[in-house]
Automatic annotation (TrEMBL):
Positions with biased composition (Polar residues): 1-15
Compositionally skewed regions (Low complexity) per UniProt: 16-32
Segments for region (Disordered): 1-44, 158-200
Alphabetic keyword roster: Developmental protein, DNA-binding, Nucleus, Transcription, Transcription regulation
Family named by the database record: Belongs to the plant homeotic and developmental regulators ALOG protein family.
Keyword Transmembrane helix: no
Gene of this entry: LOC105032912
First-listed, main subcellular location of the protein, grouped into a coarse class: nucleus
Transmembrane regions listed in the UniProt entry: none
Subcellular locations according to the entry: Nucleus
UniProt protein name: Protein LIGHT-DEPENDENT SHORT HYPOCOTYLS 4
Entry-linked Pfam families: ALOG_dom
Gene Ontology CC terms: nucleus
GO biological process: mRNA transcription; response to light stimulus
Amino acid sequence: MEPADSPSSEGFTPTSPNASASSSSPAAGSNPPSVPSPSRYESQKRRDWNTFGQYLKNHRPPLSLSRCSGAHVLEFLRYLDQFGKTKVHTQMCPFFGHPNPPAPCPCPLRQAWGSLDALIGRLRAAYEENGGKPEANPFGARAVRLYLREVREMQAKARGISYEKKKRKKPPPPSHQGGRPDAGPSDRPRSPPPATGATA
């Protein structure tokens, strides 16, 4: 299989920041309609989709999108590992489980789990935006989800870090008096009147 265009540093496809600016510069004196530029997410999603399409073309034998399965997505993710920049220690490495190794080691570089997880999310959305059926989406296949889970757990152990998502802290509920929320002055329980002496 011939390699596809080499992705760059966990972002997968090189881009030229000045390319779009130079090609879209309006002529002097003209007033072209203002077209909102795509967001960073949309731009990255389009680049990822083009990279995957190039990968399918370079596949031997060539593979059409309609015949792409979860197994082919896993091949693509493993192919991307050669462009990774995240050090993943092996169990034989003395720095296994060390979040900040004090010295270099020969352990391989891989794509970080977070990069792969975000990539699959973008490709999953791009697949359906380009006419694919949600029930046939290879990027949402169970094998892909299991692979990402294994990568997360393996890298967490090897790098000594945690990938657990931080839960947002909810604001504390307002203090209630008498067990009833928002009790107004008239709603609060009143103290009984002080006892008075017996009348004759």
